[in-house]
Design goal:
Residues 593-625 are annotated as: Disordered. InterPro entries: At_inactive_RLKs, Kinase-like_dom_sf, Leu-rich_rpt, LRR_dom_sf, LRR_N_plant-typ, Prot_kinase_dom, Protein_kinase_ATP_BS. Residues 593-611 have a biased composition (Basic and acidic residues). This is Protein kinase domain-containing protein. The structure is a single chain. It contains 14 helices and 22 strands. It is elongated. The strands form four sheets. A seven-stranded mixed sheet has the order 1-2-4-6-8-10-12, with no helix packed on it. A seven-stranded parallel sheet has the order 3-5-7-9-11-13-14. A six-stranded antiparallel sheet has the order 15-19-20-18-17-16, sandwiched between helices. It has 625 residues and is α/β, with parallel strands linked by helices. Helix 9 packs antiparallel against helix 13. It binds adenosine-5'-triphosphate (ATP). The site of adenosine-5'-triphosphate has 21 residues, from strand 16 and strand 18.
């Protein structure tokens, strides 16, 4: 039976609530469904169903097909799982389908391609697998297609969709070339796959019979890539110029187009305030949005915009940020950090600062001076926002999280051990990042070096975050989490120095080598901290006892570990003048990594377990205070 009235819509919604809503959908069944939270009607039919971040879980029932007038279905950021039920394919009026941020699995189903009116489809952050179907070409009106962070494999089909302007397939398991028609999309749309973007890397399907590329193919690829690159560059320059002119002339006159954006701002704020614990980060962002809206109103809207650093393309603005779906990453010394997924698919980390004690002028000067600093081992800062009540900093989101989580999270079964090459590579990356900061003058220091501020790229390269913030906050007289890393001479968190950074970096190296968090070792009965413990073990010539058991399973590296341990001990010298500079540390770790990889190349086949029997002599440095 095909039902088509409000009663049938109500039956579908009740089935949905029963299957996935549990206690989270507080709909009063005796009222009209048009009055229910998240349900919007027109001419007595349900046309929009928006339940973002409502803590829905389980499998979608076969019921939503009844909603024959539905044009927007948003179930983003819940915990829905299993395949998408086939009756979704009968929602002939559907224009917007937002399923991102769930646990949906299985292949992308063919029935989606019956949805001829679909304009926006977001399947990102799920567990979809299999290949990307070429049938997407049937969806001629598609303008947005987001599929990032799934398990999709195979190559990207050559999509011929004239209206497609937002596209992202990053962080899947895709291989092969980027199809020509998609080559104008930003590179971030493809990152985190094994695509052959660089010329001369043979692509699947482009090799000739004997597996080698012909001269013509190589020339073709090189020319294609050069032209593609120039085109992308031109488009970017034009876009940047347009955006700037727009911002200058009509910044505040822009209205979100009705039906074009997923949730109007006020609604998003209200929805998020109601969100269940499944979406714990949402409410504070709503609070930030409300606080900003209030103080903007007071100040007449004069400071409404985000300030972008340097050449960062202005692809989003404050409105986009406040509309984004957010998730708390953690609370730190200077505030709370959120992962914010903007509706255009861009993911950023937003730090909401608390206890800023400096004046607005000082804040802007300090943030702008550190925001300008760029290096491949520093987390890129993109923008900031300042008003009396809210201070936000926007950074690139680092999907692999922090060194702290990697070292100390998931220590139980199923953990992938962190090997020596990865650890020494992280030590080197962090040293390079901090040394670069210090190279900007003796007054520039980080002030908060610790393992949760060393973030990682997908290839485990270290990027240092949070630099410069220590100079903005008030003094922190009570012991806090940074204490294990803080140099003995630092009594006021704002009065940090480069030599204090070196001390903290030394503790970070000890953490990498021992696998012990410096903050935890405080809990030791005798009140012994990490450097004192290491020094006492080393003095007693039990050096190999200090290393993380996980490292001892690798042969031939103990000598290198002992050398790095010596460098760490040098950094943690009690008197600042006895510590090396960060540039010296960087050079020494660089040398250590170089010689250790050369040595291993030479002795690759030699079984050598003598290392574990040697006694090492390590200078344990100055006695503890
Ligand atoms: N750009 C980012 N990308 C991904 N994760 C991040 C990013 N910035 C911070 N995080 C993570 O978010 C969490 C909270 O970070 P935050 O910087 O607020 O606190 P913290 O590092 O624990 O302490 P502190 O404020 O003293 O530096 C940490 O686990 C951190 O690793």
């Amino acid at each position: 039976t095909v039902y088509s009235d409000l009663a049938s819509d109500k039956i579908a919604l009740e089935a949905l609530r029963k299957a996935v809503g549990g206690r989270s959908l507080l709909w009063n069944i005796s009222n009209s469904p048009c009055s229910w939270v998240g349900v919007f009607c027109e001419r007595d039919r349900v046309v929009e169903l928006r339940l973002p971040g409502m803590g829905l879980s389980g499998k979608l029932p076969v019921a939503l097909g009844n909603l024959t007038q539905l044009h927007t279905l948003s179930l983003r950021f819940n915990a829905l799982s299993g395949p998408i039920p086939a009756d979704i394919g009968s929602l002939a009026s559907l224009r917007n389908l937002y399923l991102q941020g769930n646990f949906f699995s299985g292949e992308i189903p063919e029935f989606l391609f019956n949805l001829q009116n679909l304009v926006r489809l977001d399947l990102a952050h799920n567990n979809f697998s299999g290949e990307i179907p070429t049938s997407f070409n049937k969806l001629k009106r598609l303008g947005t297609l987001y599929m990032e962070e799934n398990q999709l494999n195979g190559s990207i089909p050559d999509l011929n969709l004239p209206s497609l302007d937002q596209f992202n397939v990053s962080f899947n398991k895709l291989t092969g070339p980027i199809p020509q028609r998609l080559s104008g999309k930003p590179t971030t749309a493809f990152e985190g796959n094994s695509l052959c973007e660089k010329p001369l890397i043979p692509c699947n399907g482009t090799s000739n019979g004997n597996g080698k590329l012909s001269g013509g193919a190589i020339a073709g690829i090189v020319i294609g890539c050069v032209i593609g690159f120039l085109l992308i560059l031109m488009i970017l320059i034009i876009l940047c110029q347009k955006k700037r002119t727009k911002q200058g002339v009509a910044k505040d006159t822009q209205e979100p187009k009705r039906g074009e954006v997923e949730i109007p701002r006020e609604k998003a704020v209200a929805d998020r305030g109601n969100a269940s614990t499944g979406f714990a980060g949402a409410a504070p962002v709503a609070a930030a949005a409300a606080a900003i809206a209030k103080s903007e109103a007071k100040s007449g809207g004069g400071t409404k915009s985000l300030v972008f650093f340097g050449n960062t393309p202005r692809v989003f603005d404050l409105e986009d940020l406040l509309r984004a779906s957010a998730e708390v990453l953690g609370k730190g010394t200077f505030g709370t950090t959120y992962k914010a997924t903007l509706e255009m698919g861009v993911v950023v980390a937003v730090k909401r600062l608390k206890d800023v004690t400096v004046t607005e002028k000082e804040f802007r000067e300090k943030i702008e001076s550190v925001g300008k600093i760029n290096h491949e081992n520093l987390v890129p800062s993109r923008a900031y926002y300042y008003n009396k009540d809210e201070k936000l900093l926007v950074y690139d989101y680092m999907p692999m999280g922090s060194l702290s989580a990697l070292l100390h999270g998931n220590r139980g079964a199923g953990r992938t051990p962190l090997n020596w090459d990865t650890r020494s590579g992280i030590a080197l990356g962090a040293a390079r990042g901090i040394a670069h900061l210090h190279s900007h003058g003796p007054a520039i220091s980080h002030g908060n070096i610790k393992s949760s501020n060393i973030l990682l790229t997908t290839s485990f390269e270290a990027r240092v975050s949070d630099f410069g913030l220590a100079h903005l906050a008030g003094p922190t007289p009570t012991p806090n989490r940074i204490d294990g890393y803080r140099a003995p001479e630092v009594t006021d968190a704002r009065k940090v120095s480069q030599k204090a950074d070196v001390y903290s970096f030394g503790i970070l190296l000890l953490e990498l080598l021992t696998g012990k968090a410096p903050t935890h070792s405080h809990l030791n009965d005798e009140g012994v901290d990490l450097p004192r413990w290491v020094q006492s073990v080393v003095r007693d010539e039990w050096t190999s006892e200090v290393f993380d058991l996980e490292l001892l399973r690798y042969q031939n590296v103990e000598e290198d570990m002992v050398q790095l341990l010596q460098l760490a001990i040098n950094c943690t010298a009690q008197y600042p003048d006895n510590r090396p500079s960060m540039a010296e540390m960087r050079d020494q770790i660089e040398e250590l990594c170089r010689s250790s990889s050369q040595e291993r190349d030479t002795h690759l086949d030699i079984e050598d377990d003598k290392a574990s029997q040697q006694t090492y002599s390590v200078d344990s440095g100055a006695p503890p205070p």
